[in-house]
Specification:
0% strand, Arp2/3 complex 21 kDa subunit ARPC3, 166 residues, 6 helices, mainly alpha, single chain
């Protein structure tokens, strides 16, 4: 029978990751959502969910995507959209979990391209659900929210890769 007790290092890692996630959500809400260029904004929460999925696997990616998406939905009053899309993306990226995540240091090109593809998938799902919920389809949704947001998020992933370089 499996035990549910956590070691102190596991507890500290879970607590640290949870606090980091909450910090990223607050940073997204207070800062990044206000850095709009033609309606597009970067999505740091998406990058954090991708980190969780790549580092810890699909279950943690799914759970982290749901919890961070739920917090974003509560703060931005868009109930359900962020939680659903970020859960799905966290699960999907978790299917490609790394065996040794500590040793993974992407090149700048890999960081940009990975962030771009990830954001194109995420923003495409988000825009499709938003269009269904709102009952509208406009060029703004396609250009700013999908393509512009994906480029902005890819640029943010490039900045994160630059900061993480040793």
């Amino acid at each position: 029978m499996p035990t549910l007790l956590l070691s102190s290092t596991q507890f500290v890692r879970i607590l640290r990751t949870t606090l980091q996630g909450m910090l990223v959500v607050v940073l997204q809400w207070l800062v990044l959502n206000r850095l709009r260029l033609w309606g597009a904004y970067p999505d740091a929460v998406l990058l954090f969910v991708a980190y969780l999925g790549l580092t810890y696997g699909r279950r943690v990616g799914l759970l982290g995507g749901f919890l961070s998406g739920f917090l974003l939905d509560a703060l931005l009053d868009s109930w359900g959209l962020h939680a659903l899309v970020k859960s799905l993306v966290g699960f999907l990226i978790g299917l490609f979990a790394l065996e040794e995540p500590e040793a993974f240091r992407p090149t700048l090109g890999q960081a940009f391209l990975g962030g771009l593809v990830l954001a194109l998938v995420h923003n495409g799902l988000f825009v499709a659900l938003l269009a269904l919920a709102a009952g509208t389809r406009t060029a703004f949704m396609l250009e700013a929210l999908w393509l512009g947001g994906a480029l902005y998020t890819a640029f943010l992933s490039l900045l994160v890769a630059l900061v993480r370089r040793d």
